[in-house]
Amino acid sequence: MTAVRVNSMACVNPTGLHRMAYYEWGDPENDDVVLCVHGLTRTGRDFDALASRLAKRFRVVCPDVVGRGLSDWLPQPLGYAVPQYTADMVSLVARLQPKTLHWVGTSMGGLIALSYAALVAQSNLRLRATPPARLSASIADPVVSISRLVLNDVGPRVEPVSLARIGQYLAEDLQFESFDASVQYMKQTAASFGPHSEEQWASLTRHYFVPREGRWVKHYDPGIAMAFASVSQDLMTQGEQMLWGAYACVNAPTLILHGAQSDLLSEATVKSMLQANPQARSVDFAGVGHAPSLLVEDQIQTVVGFIDAH
Question: Is 226 among the domain residues?
């Protein structure tokens, strides 16, 4: 497996700065970048197997979204929301300075991608409207757009039944005496990921639970559950409308990965997404719910083939 490098950078939040860690694969001078952004309680290490394959041709960057993994926790838990996450990714892309940017977003990571696409569209629209005399050569180039987008089991509409399920396990204050016990918990909680080998289950657990004071504890800020619980039905409705608008800003080939048994991304939503974007296509994975782990070979091949087509 290709070696991984661990880096970090400072990002801005309403009360100060926080450090965001990210993992990097492939040639650091390669300006063809694949950005892989994980789901709600996961980490950038979810993409190890995929990143190792993509790194043969691309520079692959997999951040720990703030509050997860090696990244700092926010001082104000209600800051755990897509606008903060998107601002952090804008800062990360500015640091990477890619020539081409491809994005693989699992669940929450896909919603961040849609938000990023909307911001880029707004920014570039303002840039085109700015009189040339007011532009210097250093700011005349548009913000980097997404060249190819993989949305892993997520879309503008998120089914309420899935949110209820996620909220239940998100708030659980669990600790285990052994790593094996943590793996058994992962097998039960993440059964919707579909069939996996023992090593794959261990990989899914290894960066979700970490040893601390003789126990195995979750590797994310419990404050994320507080922010999640604060989202009202009205906010969800407004958010869906905004996300459909953001999805319309994606002007790139888009691959929608759909767990055939997903309770988060419905077949009806996938159909609407395909109708709304002529550049989009979808792939269903039988026996998988929310969300495909991207550890299984056919899932990896599907993503690599799509990104490699660039």
Answer: no
